[in-house]
Protein 1
Amino acid sequence: MLRACLLTALPAFVVMAGDVREEILVVVNGHIVTRRTFQQAVEQDAVALYRQYSGKELDEKLRDARGKTLQGLIDSFVIQDKAAELGIQVSDEHLQSIVEDIKQQNKFNSDADFEQALRTSLGIGLADYLKRTRQQLVQQEVLRREIFSKVAIEDQELRAYYEDHKDEYRMPSRFRIRELVLPRGTTPEEQQASQAKLNEIQTALKTGKSFEELVKAYSTSPTQSTGGDLGWLTKGLLMPTIESAALKLKTNEVSAPIETAKDITLVQLIAADLDAVRPFADVKASILEKLQEPKAQSAIETYLSQLRVRANIRYMVAKEIIVKG
């Protein structure tokens, strides 16, 4: 209440912030939207539009951008006050965990590196980014509680979407093999010795000898110590002749000798996930969110309209003038 009184006592078009005088455009309950805040938001939203759209579609988006940005700033304060009423908070620890995840994913070694990337891509520092992220998380939680949790989607509808859109949840094909590599040799004597070893290996396999043990006994590849295990591989990483032979095998089956310019290779298929699809249980939550969103749009607008009506929103500069710029 005191804050609102102080604002009213100041000239309608400026607010004192240290030695900085800022023009007030809108007062939302006890919050203010200044011209500088609005202009920064307009510029940031415009950058996002330029990245997503082009040509005629971009022109149409930019035409309405200032009005939508202004409404977004107002709604953020309205929702923020609703969040306070509901007791919704985002802890500093949660915000920091988000920053650490982003730093790790993008290989930023320090907060300074992360902040530099923020200034380059978004034009804001770390403090402003944390403030914006906190507001977004709070808004998302308000809408989740008040709107999305009340939009019912039957499990049958979720599963039907999953079955019809499995390509969206298809995982990259991958396979795992062991390799046993013998040098072909450059002289007749070396080639004869390699052939003798190959014969020993194939005979041992027929008698049930473990391929892994044979790798450790005979292979000249650096993978000898791990039993020839190459780990999980995606298509295209191996020589085509080896990959093709490996993908024709059944699990635990060993290929015929594969000759290259320098080596003779045997491979064993350990496992293969070819054209695998993520399980329904793993993607159910994301499908629910996707199907809820269009059904919730009208409910969200109705909800925001109700919050706006109850809020004390005062335009210190006519809305038409703000939007026109």
Protein 2
Amino acid sequence: MSSPTNPLSSILDGRVKEYLHALHGVEDPLLDRMEAYAEERGFPLIGRASGRWLAWLAQVVDARRVFEVGSGFGYSAFFFAQAVGEAGEVIGADRDAWEIDAHREIYGAHPFSSRIHIHHGEALAVLDALPGEFDVFLLDCDKAAYASTLEHVLPRLRVGGLVLADNVLWGGRTTQEPDQDDVSTQGLREFNRLIHAHPLLDSQILPVGDGLAVCRKRME
């Protein structure tokens, strides 16, 4: 899950945003259905601009196996499913069973539904029960836990693979010292410092959506 719901206006001029969006022309109607559902619920999304980056970055590293820490009803999973191809898989988890029910209902018989597997439960517990390495991890969970989540997933990421994290600019709030009780902003600032100093990562932050961190795992 992502929040704030419409942070892009504080990062990118609205006219530029609309211009870039229009260049992509008509896209899969499933995106329209998911966005309408999210608006009805007041459910925050990563958004199409960031989603397109998810797909492109996954393609660049030839990803076939993706794990999402924070899946919701499968909006971001759509973009990864686009990237991994018919033989790939996108695995995620959500604590709320109704999100998984919503995912199944909205996707229906869409071809991507066979590539996406959202489990009911805590994401890291689901990850720990699975074998093997992954090509890409997406962090879109409790912002205060980003740094600890990163350390948890890194051993399961292949060399050359990516950790992607949404909301790292947090509507611009990470540019300022947070209030003492603002644990989300504190956690995101800690995460941003960590990824740029981490000995196993090469990292950049893309000023797209609400800020997308892109971290590539180096050789140990």
